[in-house]
From TrEMBL:
Keywords: Hydrolase
Pfam families: Amidohydro_1
InterPro entries per the UniProt record, alphabetical: Amidohydro-rel, Metal-dep_hydrolase_composite, Metal_Hydrolase, MTA/SAH_deaminase
Keyword Hydrolase appears in the UniProt entry: yes
Domain Amidohydrolase-related: 64-416
Lineage: Bacteria, Bacillati, Actinomycetota, Actinomycetes, Micromonosporales
Keyword Coiled coil appears in the UniProt entry: no
Name of the protein in question: Amidohydrolase family protein
Species annotation: Micromonospora harpali
Top-rank taxon: Bacteria
Amino acid sequence: MSAGDPAADGRPVVFRNGLVLTMDDRHTVLPDADVLVVGDRIAAVGVGLDAPADAVEIDATGGILMPGMIDTHRHMWQTAMRGYGADWTLTQYFVWYYLDHGRLFRPEDVHAGNVLAALEAIDAGVTTTVDWSHGLRTVEHADAAADALESVPGRFVLAYGNIQQGPWEWATSPEFRDFHRRRIDGGRLGFQLAFDVTGDPSFPEKAAFEVARELDVPVTTHAGVWGATNDDGIRLMHEHGFMTPSTVYVHAATLNPDSYHRIAATGGSVSVSTESEQSAGQGYPPTWALRRHDIGVSLSMDTSVWWSGDLFSAMRATLGADRAREHLDAHARQETVTHAHLRAEHVVDWATRGGSRALGMDSQVGSLQAGRKADVVLLRNDASPVMFPLLNPYGHVAFQAQRGDVHTVLVDGRVVKHEHRLVGVDLAAARRGVEATVSYLMDAMGEEAWRRGMNPDIPATAVLDNPYTYTEWDAGSAQWKH
Ligand SMILES: [Zn+2]
């Protein structure tokens, strides 16, 4: 860092001498290269760039420069309950949020969760996040969600949802229309409709799809979730003509090949939340099947009520799950996998371009190319023994790096994190907001319900007899005795 304050708005920024993963169409990798940012755009990427005299210079030596990462499905309001559901299953999650306690959340609680989640995202180099906001049971909640997203200098897409009503109810209400007109039309915030399709043969969700079509906004939907949504929902969407290239299918883990064919044929993409699918039980993380159907993949973290919101863990878990499946399938056939299909380069692509393609933002973000919006991440950590040697850059991002290695983040050309610290954000206010929500929820739920919710019962496990602990042969019964 040479000249001046990196947070000073409006000055050009030049990163010097980094290993640049451009993530352009050819996945060009440039060693010892620079990235120049002027205004909200990337002005140039290359070696030994000339920079304007007033440019802020950031030394990227020993680091990796990559595009800001993109999360296509995160229930940001739930970040107010960070870690509470670490031991949940999907069933316990549904009972807690959908049935028992989700409606306790007030607009200020949605706001508190969203602010914290937004800060968490940019801190981890996730510069674009879809807020899969299904706790919007009134428009006041929606305004609070939008206010929160607008208060943090990241790029956000508000995916509007409400689990307390059918989508055919809330999406057709005048209040919802008014919200869209007031807060979204022509504004900076991206927008989607977020709802699930139950498979009811009368297809009541049709009315909500029609609203999405009329407003020309994408639909994002939890599809192929064990015990919740299935192939019937996909078939109904397809038969009614509501599967489009902008549709995002979240999880898509418990689907038959016919559904994958319908998704592939209509050009939609799947948001894979590997850590969630592995732990909660939506189905096996589906990248192994999506690859075979040539369906686009983006990555997501789902909810910080279980996991933290960084895409390093998403990339790592996705590589592991895909390869584990490939090995296991092969072993069942008495075969050996000698070449893994899924590469580190693929998951880095999914964490960047996969997201920009899914969101229809590929000409704006997702790659480091002149003319693109300047959403830039520098991974550099001089104090870490894990940052060298840098031999395989994609492998380094997917398997070695972590949130603490995120040194600098730019969103829209603005420095939002520098030297490992968020810049120009009020973390103390975010903390106060979440603390107020937590104490309100503890009061509203009562101590017993709060404690039980966090500590679900453990089912009984029958421990098998262990033949190696037997000590004595009983000749009479011809058995080992303890
Ligand atoms: Zn979800």
